[in-house]
Amino acid sequence: MIGSSVPTKRILIIRLSSLGDLVLAASALSSESLGHVRRRLGSNDLKVDWLLSKGFEGLFAGDPRISRLWVFDRKAGVRAWFRLAEELVGEGYEEVWDLHSSLRSGILRIIFLMNSKSRRVQWRRFSKDRVRMLSLLFFRIGRWRAARPRTVLDRVAHVLGLSQAPHPSFLPLLSGDSGLVPVGRAWAPLKEGQRLYAVMPSSAWPGKCWSVANYAELARQLQMESSGQWIPVVLGTPKDEASIELLEQLRVLNIDFRDGVGLGSLSFSAKILAASAFYFGNDTGLAHLAESIGTPACVIHGPTSAELGFGPWRPESLILERGDLLCRPCSKDGKRCFRFWDPYACMKGLSVQNVLDQLRPRLAQFGLKKGTNA
User: Which residues in 131-252 belong to E strands, given as ranges?
Assistant: First the structure.
């Protein structure tokens, strides 16, 4: 039984970036995770802080599970990191969950150990499974399930001392800004029977991008098969060139769509994902965010694969890929392709017809029905 007189236990989570990694790391905030930690520490009064990079704080805006967000600007440099470390040392944390396992977090740990106030803080570190990862990428040893890297969710669970990995949830994001889009940005209302599906054609890594022409052709095919009932909503930021280009191609093809580019808030993106039948796009953080709010994700995997440990986890989600290439997976970001005779065949060789063949059996499960003229 947990005593009510036990003092407040404070936890610091370190995960600076990026969007997908932050979403998966947030499985540490699940009710199962925090309930286990309360029992382990013998206290009902648990306060959790999170340290992350500037630009991602919107992900946890108004999240009741977080007591305080520590936001670090990476452009501020090393001295700013040391100043922040000194401030964190005096916060009286019981545990630090290092879910980033980087040079920065390693420096922070050394500073904690050197200070008498924080020397007894229990430091729990996330494993990157580097040996298994390298064995998979370079020697293909990870093709066997027992040797491949553990999933990110499993590794987060291990940090907390859990035997079973909980799933992340960002439902608090849906209670933020009102409406699907910002005030002053109107969308045409959906007609009876129409459903949205979210499309993300961009990625920070060009090697992980399916061509914009393919996205446009797939949208055209789905429009024809559904007699205009399936409406794509294109997501991204104003800096995502692929998203901007896709909007233009959809206009040229006279396809009914909704513009979700540059909404300015992750809360709006989350609401659009929640209102969509499914997410369709590249292997990006928005795919993980979609799953965390209950929307299945249909993710295109080229250089990456589920064997790397960060694939979709919902049973109704789907990986769209070429299964005939022994060179896959080759990296986590597709930055380099070693097929000099046929570079990025994993993406260029994944045809629209191939993707449709994989996608069609799931469409009925997503609540999307073919139109009468299909």
Answer: 195-200, 230-236
Query: Please, are residues 344 and 302 in contact by the beta-carbon 8 Å criterion?
Result: yes
Q: What domains can be seen in the chain, in order of their start residue? A: 9-172 (3.40.50.2000), 185-363 (3.40.50.2000)
Tokens found for residue 223 = 């429009």
Are residues 280 and 319 in contact, defined by beta-carbon separation less than 8 angstroms? no
Residue where the block lists tokens 């292997």: 283
Selected residue with higher pLDDT from 103 and 7: 103
Q: Which pLDDT does position 183 carry in this prediction?
A: 61
Q: Select from 252, 257, 268, 239 the least CA-distant residue to 199.
A: 257
> Are 80 and 40 in contact, with CB atoms under 8 Å apart?
no
Paired sense of beta strands 279-282 and 258-261, if any: unpaired
pTM score, whole prediction: 0.93
Average pLDDT over residues 126-131: 93
Residue 13: phi and psi, rounded to 5, are -100, 130
Q: Identify the sign of the CA torsion 84, 85, 87, 88.
A: positive
pLDDT band at 159 (very low <50, low <70, confident <90, very high): very high
Confidence of residue 283 (pLDDT cuts 50, 70, 90): very high
- Return the pLDDT at 374: 38
Phi, psi at 257, each rounded to 5°: -150, 170
The conformation of residue 8, written as its DSSP 8-state character, comes to P
DSSP string, 104-146: HHHHHHHHHHHSTTTTT-EEEE----HHHHHHHHHH-GGGSTT
- C-alpha–C-alpha distance, residues 284 and 144, integer Å: 25
Mean pLDDT of 270-289: 96
Q: What radius of gyration do the chain's Cα atoms show? A: 22
178-208 pLDDT, tens per residue? 667 776 677 888 999 999 999 999 999 999 9
In whole angstroms, how far apart are CA 208 and each of 68, 123, 321? 34, 34, 12
> What confidence tier does 143 reach under pLDDT thresholds 50, 70, 90?
low
Length of the chain (residues) = 374
